[in-house]
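wait is this the right file?? whatever heres the structure
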């Protein structure tokens, strides 16, 4: 992420820790959400295509490779909505619901970062939202730590029942160098959807520390080599492969 200067506008206790809403001093419509000092989301209200966080950019690259047209999407987690805002920006007419279990975080974000038409953000249980959903083109699950219920076989079945069209399912988690969470997720996702595309931080693969892993299952044909090239050239490089 490029050097930016921020000032804290509000600090509030949320379920996952102490959250800060920080305003970019040089771009007054741009905001950073941090929890316990760790940046979680960056949102530029005037330019939603500006995605300085590598993992969000990698998922956006996958979205760009899907068949053209608006998307009916459910996002579980990620209440600041960097990715939904991007989708709404590049695919006008999309209908998106963002559900986050952290009601305090949802309230905090809603107080500072108004969402565009076509996106709804609410506090709630992601499993319940998924079970009630149908005719989705895209399901995105974002979790720093993945709860057991969201890694279960039942959850994957709910995803399959809710999806239609290109049937694109994206899971983003933070894993350790032993890749234990990734391995477990690949097993349950593959059992329902086939071997997923894996986008993993190179630092994580090299064993230098924790990092993000994104699993992608879709019936769309993705340009894997192109996605891999873009990921490797990024400021925070990653690798793209089919399975590990």
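ok assuming it is, sequence goes like this
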């Amino acid at each position: 992420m490029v050097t930016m200067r921020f000032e804290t506008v509000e600090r509030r206790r949320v379920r996952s820790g102490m959250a800060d809403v920080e305003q970019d001093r040089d771009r007054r419509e741009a905001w950073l959400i941090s929890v316990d000092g760790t940046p979680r989301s960056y949102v530029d209200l005037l330019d939603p295509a500006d995605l300085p966080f590598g993992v969000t950019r990698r998922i956006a690259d996958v979205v760009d490779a899907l068949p053209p047209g608006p998307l009916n999407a459910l996002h579980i987690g990620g209440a600041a909505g960097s990715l939904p805002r991007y989708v709404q920006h590049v695919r006008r007419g999309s209908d998106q619901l963002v559900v986050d279990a952290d009601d305090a975080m949802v309230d905090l974000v809603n107080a500072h970062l108004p969402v565009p038409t076509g996106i709804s953000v609410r506090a709630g249980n992601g499993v319940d939202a998924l079970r009630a959903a149908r005719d989705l083109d895209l399901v995105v699950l974002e979790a720093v730590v993945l709860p057991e219920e969201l890694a279960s076989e039942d959850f994957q079945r709910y995803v399959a029942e809710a999806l239609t069209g290109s049937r694109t399912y994206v899971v983003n988690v933070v894993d350790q160098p032993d890749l234990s969470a990734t391995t477990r997720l690949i097993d349950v996702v593959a059992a329902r959807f086939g071997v997923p595309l894996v986008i993993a931080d190179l630092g994580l693969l090299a064993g230098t520390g924790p990092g993000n892993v994104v699993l992608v299952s879709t019936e769309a044909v993705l340009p894997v080599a192109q996605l891999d090239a873009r990921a490797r050239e990024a400021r925070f490089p990653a690798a793209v492969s089919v399975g590990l």
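The chain is about 30% helix and 35% strand. so i think its the right one actually
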